[in-house]
Amino acid sequence: MFALVRGLLLAALLAVSATSAAVDGEDNRAAHQVLVMLHLPAPHYRPDSGYSGSYGDDGAHAARRRIAEELAKSHGLVLVTDWPMPVLGIDCYVMEDPAHGTAAHMVEVLSRDKRIEWVQPMSTYHSLGNDPLFPAQPSSTLWHLNDLHRIATGRNVTVAVIDSGVQDDHPDLRGQVVLKENFVDGMPYAGEQHGTAVAGIIAAIAGNGVGIEGIAPNARVMALRACWQPAGSRAQCNSFTLGKALNFAIAHDARIINLSLGGPPDRLLERLLDVAMKKGARIVAAVDPQNVDGGFPASLSGVLAVASLESHGMAPRVLLAPGREIPTTAVDGGWNFVSGTSYAAAHMSGMLALLEELRPAMSTAQIEQQLVKADFDSAEGVDACATIGRITGNCPCSCTAAHVSKTTYTP
Asked: Which pLDDT value is given to residue 135?
């Protein structure tokens, strides 16, 4: 018996080691890669069209790629892959130094090449919270979901979940995913733990007799896989995969974009997010509690930065939402309890979907001005019910008169 137990423990340790090695390998490779931006020719730059980044009928792709290959060769680099970013009017090329030179050195050298719009390191990102916990009191009671859903359910609102894969055939998500794309690799799309958990919090089906109920159960999910998640590890992403997914979400008019991840500032992603916000999209990002400024993209102006109610020492602009012991969908077709700012961000995206249904003309800045905060277990978090009551003048739950009088939003 002892030998059997020891063998099982050894197998588990080897599996964890292999997973860690795979993730470390991706991070190490990114350290020797850069993103090179070249102008997209004018005929192909259609930011107001549905063109989302697939070359398809673009006959000039091969010619543009040859130019990029010549550029890479002239600097001793290898062209790895590419993708058009029409919302920015650029082609994005991933280049790698086979001699394992640093990204900083490559950026310094390539920045002097006049053919290049700009060059930047390949940044890496990770999900913020992926810890299964024991069952606890459902956090949905804090936001009075049953009361909220009498006036709004997120109907006809699309939320882009840029994350690891979402299991769209999960009993609580079946029919909720209207579109799914894989921007990580050429493999068939498959569900993963983090993306599935985030999507469930936002839009799990209501009234089906199983599992949980999403914050916005009639919202629809645009499941954009930009992160990968080896078993037992947190989801990992990079500038290139996230950029492709953001470009797609913008081109397909996602009203809300959920980014339950964090990492370093990134020029490509910042420009894409700026375009998204100028087009009226609401961006929700999880705060990295280990980072003084909350990490990127949460630190970007105009982005709704969200942390869990248990967070301490957050900047005044950071919004607090339920993020501990949250019941949600699991990738095996079951359910689990999770904690982290990733899931607090998902709550906020769900609330925005409810507001989008009720007041689609409101700007993100107007919504921020109307947010009502309340004490939940000694933490001041966003009170979704009172906020919706203030904005609509019709509070479906226990709101004080101060929440709904004189401050009611009028379009």
From this structure: 35
